[in-house]
Amino acid sequence: MEDSVEDEPVFDVVIIGAGMAGLSCLYRLAKISQIYAKHMKILLLDQSNIPGNPQGSSYGDSRMFRRMYSDPFFSDMQVKALELWKELENDSGEKLLTEHGLLFWGEETDETVEGSIPGAKATMEKLGIAFESFSNGNELVAKFPVMRPKHDDIGIYEEAAGSVNSSRALLAMLQVAKMILENSLVIKGMTRVAKIEVDRDDNKIPAMVISELNDIFPCRQIVLAVNAWTNDMLAKIVNRGAGCTPRPLALNLEVHNIQWGHFQISKELADQYPQWYCFRTSVEDGGLCYGFPASTVSEQTKQKLGLGKNVDLIKVGLDYTPKGTESDSRWISSTMSSFCWEIDESRHAIMTECLKTYFHGVGNCVDRSCSPYCMTQDQYFILDSLACFDTSLSIIKIFAGGNGRAFKFAPLIGQLLAELVTGKPLCFDIWCFGAGRDAVQVYG
């Protein structure tokens, strides 16, 4: 490493990215340092303010949690994550989770990124998870009178599901970490990374993170928790030392432009809207329109939209990206540098039609937004070191490929990253999250 860094403090860990994964890793590293009386000097970096990059997928009022998956792996993962969410609530003194149920309803579709009604029902039966089943539209209306489904629609309902206050959760993780680590934690927002240097021959300072303003941060380990920005960041890694063959690093990730917005609803019906996913065979990839209850939209969000406290809103989104035509290709990229931030009129029309067809009391859309969702081909996360590229890169740990479903697992993802960093035994088997698996490697 360069002589100029000899007088710089060496960080045990530099965490790049202060969204869900980065802050949960920081929180769990702080807990490990407290439990094992292990002093760690940690640097947290983000290109935006900390916490809450408004362009990131962790931004907003709420995220769902549920055990209602077609894949039992994620159901089991949620059980473990819920234990750690309760621990965070206890540590922070904040109420972060609210149980208000989740309804899957609509038609029998093939498996989608969110599963399917038959698949989720089979998993819940297998694991003994309590749920309520609906065989037709009349039964759905009897439970949810605000709805007007088709007569032959079916559904399942997990009463113990709910939502996480995502903005408050990010702040809670940061505040607990600051309280535990005190002066051992350095936080630098509005800091863009220009280069990451790794030197296998330097045992004292094996890595350096260098900012665009030429600030140099020597460190022993790095956590890349930038999700949609992963390939942008991998391109900045320079692997030095004897025997290293310099080559650009990349993973087979897609960054999807996911559309969502807020709709005004009837005040008289506001407390009747459930949390829901709609499955339709007539729309590509099952449709996957979803909605949150009115209670999950914060007063801060209403203020940002220029609306009064007496206005009731629901957040609605569409969990698919069109791929049918050449013009659709703009909605999917491999990096954030090529990401398209446009609003897709056709997908917002699908959301509007779904709402106004199947629910009473829906008014106008008051804002339209999009977010980058980082997707893998097999829909499993990446949670691993980068040793698959070169053993010297084992000091870099990574979380990516959240697939739009990662926030509900936040404290478990953070715990697993912290265990990888500290060499502790993993609390959950993540055999399917390897960075070297075929589905996420770039060939050719």
If you had to describe this structure to a student in words, what would you say it looks like?
There is one protein chain. The protein contains nine helices and 21 strands. With 444 residues, the protein is an alpha/beta fold. The protein is globular and about 70 Å long.
Helix-strand topology string: EHEEHEEHEHEEHEEEEHEEEEHEEHEEEH
Radius of gyration: 22 Å
What is the count of DSSP helices, taking H or I runs of 4+ residues? 9
* Cα-to-Cα separation, first versus last residue: 32 Å
DSSP summary, beta strand count: 21
Secondary structure: helix percent: 10-25%
Strand content: 25-35%
> What structural class do you assign from the helix and strand content?
alpha/beta
Which SSEs are present, and which pair or pack?
Blueprint: E1 11-16, H1 20-35, E2 42-45, E3 62-65, H2 72-92, E4 97-99, E5 102-106, H3 117-127, E6 132-134, H4 137-143, E7 154-158, E8 162-165, H5 166-181, E9 185-188, E10 193-199, E11 207-211, E12 216-224, H6 230-234, E13 237-240, E14 254-265, E15 276-279, E16 287-291, H7 299-304, E17 313-318, E18 332-333, H8 345-358, E19 362-375, E20 382-385, E21 396-400, H9 410-422
Features:
single chain, 444 residues, alpha/beta, 9-stranded mixed beta sheet, 9 helices, 25% helix, globular
At a glance:
The protein is built from nine helices and 21 strands. It has 444 residues and is an alpha/beta fold.
